[in-house]
Amino acid sequence: YYAVEWWHDGEAYASMAVLKHDLCKGTRKYWQRPNTYPGEPFFVPGVSGAEDDGAVMFIALDGARAHSIFVTLDARSFEELAVVELPVHIPFTAHGQFIPDANSAEKVIV
Q: pTM for the complete prediction?
C-alpha cells in the first residue's frame, strides 16, 4: 500500500514521507524531502497489470518555497519521474481521485 507517514524521523510530528509498504515481502520504501509535506499518494496503474507497474502521484507543500509541487514516482522503484513546481500553495491535505475515462483508453486525473 501507499500512504503518508508522519513522524518519519521518529522525533518530529511534521517529519513526513510517502511510504510504499509491501506487506508480502515485508519491505518499505520512502520518498522524503526536508521541509516538504506530502498529501495523499495515488497509484495510477500501468498497462501491464503487474502489481506495482505504474506511477504514484501526489501534491506536496514545499515549506521552504511556500508553494506546492506535483510529484510523480515510479511505483516499483519509488524513484522520481517528475517534479513540477507549482506557482501556488495547495494545502497538503488536499485529496484527489483517479478516474479512468470511459470514452477512451486515456486515463484522467481529477
A: 0.80
